[in-house]
């Protein structure tokens, strides 16, 4: 297992924690596929799945933040847009054979998830929690 869920990543919202964990699991699966030198189609499916789940998560998170009139919503939305663009660009570059899946790419995916949770998502925890 490349990334392991830790309570430090909890944003105290069950739904969002579950989505974060699902993204973490997909990054782990991408890592496992890389180590196993498995089929490119499988790796593309995983990148597509990560993109879909991330997009859905960002949308649901933004909706919840708007409902509570979160003061940093615009910054949070900008961060989401930037992360989705980076993720889409990586996926497109991989599909177009411009990059390979390697430790650096997997490290980037792991970093953007964990840093986003730590630096952005945990800021709303005092205002939006159900745990």
Task: Give structural notes.
- By secondary structure, this protein is an all-alpha fold.
- It has a single domain (10-123), classed as Up-down Bundle (Four Helix Bundle (Hemerythrin (Met), subunit A)), CATH 1.20.120.50.
- Helix content is 69%, strand content 0%.
- It contains four helices and no strands.
- It has helices at residues 14-36, 40-67, 73-95, 103-119.
- The longest helix is centred in the middle third of the chain and has 28 residues, at 40-67.
- It is globular, with a radius of gyration of 15 Å.
**DSSP summary: helix tally:** 4
Poorly predicted tracts of residues: none
Whole-angstrom Rg: 15 Å
| Subunit arrangement of the protein | single chain
Number of strands: 0
Average pLDDT taken over every residue:
92
Task: Indicate the percent of residues in helices.
Answer: 55-70%
Q: How much strand content do the residues show?
A: under 5%
CATH H-level homologous superfamily name: Hemerythrin-like
CATH class: Mainly Alpha
**What is the terminal separation in angstroms?**
26 Å
Number of structurally distinct domains: 1
Structural class: mainly alpha
Return the CATH architecture. Up-down Bundle
The main pleated sheet reads as: none
């Amino acid at each position: 297992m490349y990334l392991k869920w830790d309570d430090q990543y909890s944003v105290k919202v069950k739904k969002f924690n579950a989505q974060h964990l699902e993204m973490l699991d997909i990054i782990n699966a991408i890592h496992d596929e890389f180590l196993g030198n498995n089929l490119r189609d499988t790796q593309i499916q995983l990148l597509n799945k990560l993109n879909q789940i991330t997009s859905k998560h960002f949308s649901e998170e933004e909706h919840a933040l708007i409902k509570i009139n979160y003061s940093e919503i615009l910054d949070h939305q900008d961060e989401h847009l930037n992360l989705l663009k980076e993720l889409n660009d990586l996926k497109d570059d991989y599909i177009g054979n411009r990059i390979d899946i390697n430790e650096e790419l997997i490290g980037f995916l792991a970093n953007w998830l964990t840093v986003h949770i730590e630096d952005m998502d945990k800021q709303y925890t005092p205002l939006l929690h159900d745990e």
